[in-house]
Amino acid sequence: MRVLWQTAKTIAVVTILSIVVREFLFTNYIVYGQSMMPTIHDGERIIVDKIGYELMEPDRFDLIIFHADEDSDYIKRIIGLPGDELYYEDDTLYVNGAPVEEDFLEETRGGASTEVFTDDFTLENLTNEHTVPEDHVFVLGDNRKNSIDSRQIGFVPMEEIVGRANMTFWPPQNIRFFK
């Protein structure tokens, strides 16, 4: 009887710790779709850092998981922060009037390809807003031609952000950390 009681207590403690870690510290996600290729591939598993992300200021180019709707979470890259005026022209991102390099897109673009990768747009054309509103971000997938992102769904409220993607851990040959 004593062994049974010790086992039950151990199982209870492990269960409670697992719930706390998953709800408040880290969780894992399986990526579905090709919108973040080649950065993240369909079927890869990622670890998401939830520690205080809702209290932190997000950084441009963070890879975030957010609740897109009641049934779906998306992973995308933050392009625009609150107060930013941004637009694309001739395949170049402009933030507050200055061009911004997106080095992470080089592999996706295929090097010296002359094909337009990100179609021209302005925030005003897409959202009727001149700047990214307070407490919101503007996100894009790295696979710009095959991504449902802020160009279609609008700004992402910060309270819908689950956390920042830190690394892929499955399959093992694809283990890598994100900046």
TrEMBL record:
<dbReference type="InterPro" id="IPR019757">
    <property type="entry name" value="Pept_S26A_signal_pept_1_Lys-AS"/>
</dbReference>
<keyword id="KW-1133">Transmembrane helix</keyword>
<feature type="active site">
    <location>
        <position position="35"/>
    </location>
</feature>
<dbReference type="InterPro" id="IPR000223">
    <property type="entry name" value="Pept_S26A_signal_pept_1"/>
</dbReference>
<dbReference type="InterPro" id="IPR036286">
    <property type="entry name" value="LexA/Signal_pep-like_sf"/>
</dbReference>
<feature type="domain" description="Peptidase S26">
    <location>
        <begin position="5"/>
        <end position="170"/>
    </location>
</feature>
<comment type="similarity">
    <text>Belongs to the peptidase S26 family.</text>
</comment>
<dbReference type="GO" id="GO:0005886">
    <property type="term" value="C:plasma membrane"/>
</dbReference>
<protein>
    <recommendedName>
        <fullName>Signal peptidase I</fullName>
        <ecNumber>3.4.21.89</ecNumber>
    </recommendedName>
</protein>
<keyword id="KW-0378">Hydrolase</keyword>
<dbReference type="Pfam" id="PF10502">
    <property type="entry name" value="Peptidase_S26"/>
</dbReference>
<keyword id="KW-0812">Transmembrane</keyword>
<keyword id="KW-0472">Membrane</keyword>
<dbReference type="GO" id="GO:0009003">
    <property type="term" value="F:signal peptidase activity"/>
</dbReference>
<feature type="transmembrane region" description="Helical">
    <location>
        <begin position="12"/>
        <end position="32"/>
    </location>
</feature>
<feature type="active site">
    <location>
        <position position="76"/>
    </location>
</feature>
<dbReference type="InterPro" id="IPR019533">
    <property type="entry name" value="Peptidase_S26"/>
</dbReference>
<dbReference type="GO" id="GO:0004252">
    <property type="term" value="F:serine-type endopeptidase activity"/>
</dbReference>
<dbReference type="InterPro" id="IPR019758">
    <property type="entry name" value="Pept_S26A_signal_pept_1_CS"/>
</dbReference>
<keyword id="KW-0645">Protease</keyword>
<dbReference type="GO" id="GO:0006465">
    <property type="term" value="P:signal peptide processing"/>
</dbReference>
